[in-house]
Amino acid sequence: MNSLVEKxxxxxxxxxxxxxxxxxxxxEVQDIADFLGDSLGLSIKAAETSAKMIVFCGVYFMAExxxxxxxxxxxxxxxxxxxxxxxxxxxxxQLKKLRQNYPxxxxxxxxxxxxxxxxxxxxxxxxxxxxxxxNSALRDEEEIIFVPDKYLASxxxxxxxxxxxxxxxxxPSHIKISAKDILNKxxxxxxxxxLIHPECRxxxxxxxxxxxxxxxxxxxxxxxxxxxxxxxxxxxxxxxxKKEYPDKEFYPASEEAVxxxxxxxxxxxxxxxxxxxxxxxxxxxxxxKKARLSIERMINCTD
Length: 303
Ligand code: 13P
Ligand code: SF4
Fold this sequence. Notes:
This protein has 14 helices and twelve strands. The protein has helices at residues 3-15, 27-32, 39-48, 60-69, 92-101, 115-119, 130-135, 150-160, 179-188, 202-205, 214-223, 237-244, 267-276, 285-299; strands at 17-22, 35-37, 53-57, 74-76, 106-110, 123-125, 144-147, 165-166, 193-196, 210-211, 228-232, 249-252. The chain binds 1,3-dihydroxyacetonephosphate (13P) and iron/sulfur cluster (SF4).
């Protein structure tokens, strides 16, 4: 074991900390995580852990969600600038303005939003349960505002028939995956199944075999008899897939779809985070209280 990892392990025990990491984290970070997952799985884990401290290796909105679910715990993010540009495409005041135009509408926010936006929302969802959420809790609603991802919204419409009042948000990494990229990879690897994230553009989604959250991709690979997969999401997930399924092959749909926010965290920063107990996620109690309801509805909507 290298000395950085040893120090992290020692401090983790001393401080009764748990390391949660998203599937897009650097391989070195994935390898030291106590739990690796998608937004939904990480939220559930943050809600149920008995650890005193959570070191969240992901982007800011994910660590905020952990804090909302475990307000009495210390929640740390190793780099306070690890942001998600999509989450920053909508603010609470913009959402309030939009709501004024549609006073009857329910608000469904993708989990990729700031805590203040969740506090103004009726429901939150992740890529893993957006379709289920609309088909269940929101089934009878006539007007639904869906923010901020217009591509996820359009995918959910294709699966549920529900039309939404939209926001012009998108993920700058996933929009880099084009139909041409998928067609190129399919030509090179004709046997491969195409798995794609619903943050991608419709033209790319239409060429995929399965549309899945990042955890959904890992689960699907396990259940499939296929040996080759084209992966239409942030390429770092392939580290986990190769490790868990060494007899299968994985090809990124596009090497360009890198998420810079996720790449800001490395082993040194995880160690400093534990040593100095930084950077603490702090949120006003009224935001925690208001945002918690929409997030609890989200984590209760699982298979
Ligand atoms: P998942 O919840 O599928 O891991 O997606 C999170 C995300 O930000 C994808 O870009
Ligand atoms: Fe945000 Fe896109 Fe990064 Fe996901 S991949 S965290 S949506 S910028």
